[in-house]
Amino acid sequence: MSPRSGLLLLAIAASVVGITAACGEHAVTAPKTSVPLVTKRYVDDAFVLLRKFDLRAVVPNLPPIVRGGWNENGYVVVAQQPEAGNRVRAGTAVSLTLEPSLNMGGPWPPPPRYVVVPDVYRWAVDAAFGQVTDPSRGLVATIKDADPGSTRPFRDGLQVVKIQPTAGSRVRSGTEVILTVRRFG
After folding, report:
1. Is the pTM of this model over 0.85?
2. Do 23 and 107 lie in a common domain?
3. Which label site among 22, 45, 119, 158 has the fewest CB atoms less than 10 Å from its CB?
4. Are 44 and 124 in contact (CB under 8 A)?
5. Residues 19, 60 within the same domain
6. Domain range holding 142?
7. What pairs with residue 10 in β-bridges?
8. b or e along 77-109 (b: 16 or more beta carbons within 10 Å of the residue's beta carbon)?
9. CA distances (Å), 169 to each of 99, 156, 173, in order?
10. In a shared domain, residues 81 and 171
11. How are beta strands 176-184 and 157-164 bridged, if at all?
């Protein structure tokens, strides 16, 4: 093929693309998907399910957990919008309302006097909260939102971006560990 015929083919292809775009033919639209039921699920599980349906999440208000202990499991979804069963375009954001989840387990043996702060950096919020507040450690955790009021849709969940005191620190049982979380994806 000569350079001249190559240019001619390129010009024809550009014209076809321009005409198709102008006429709206073959317009590409995102496929539709059903919104799954994520209420009454732990937030980490809700994010996994939304990803499976090619949807994103929005958590505009992360309720504070201050000095939470083993009797809390992090967060549970109490409301969602759009509601389960609605058909929406793939990639649509589902707004989640969260509340702290309570754990009625126990009684537990007393923890040792000194424990090590676990490394939960980049862990999902509920898993990190559970690891820090495990009854064998006797630590309490506070969740701090690095993006308060964010309405940015995301896919990969709420992940720990900072741990205070730092992971690996030897602390007294009962120490407060602050987990700062951010929305990812």
Report:
1. no
2. no
3. 22
4. yes
5. no
6. 32-184
7. none
8. beebeeeeeeebeeebbbebebebbeeeeeeee
9. 29, 28, 12
10. yes
11. antiparallel
Instruction: Please tell me what DSSP assigns to residue 147.
Output: S
Strand partners, 139: none
Average pLDDT over residues 101-130: 90
Which of these, 117, 108, 121, 127, lies nearest to 173 by C-alpha position? Answer: 117
Among the residues of 53-113, which ranges form H helices?
A: none
Residue 147 to residue 77: CA distance in whole angstroms = 19
Beta strands in 21-92 (DSSP E): 32-34, 56-58, 65-68, 72-81, 87-89
Nearest 5°: the CA angle 181, 88, 150 is 25
Q: Are residues 92 and 20 in the same domain?
A: no
Ramachandran bin of 61, using left for φ above 0, alpha for ψ from -120 to 50, beta for the remaining angles: beta
Q: Tens digits of per-residue pLDDT, 68-87?
A: 888 887 899 999 999 999 99
Q: What is the pLDDT of residues 126-145, one digit of tens each?
A: 999 999 999 999 999 999 99
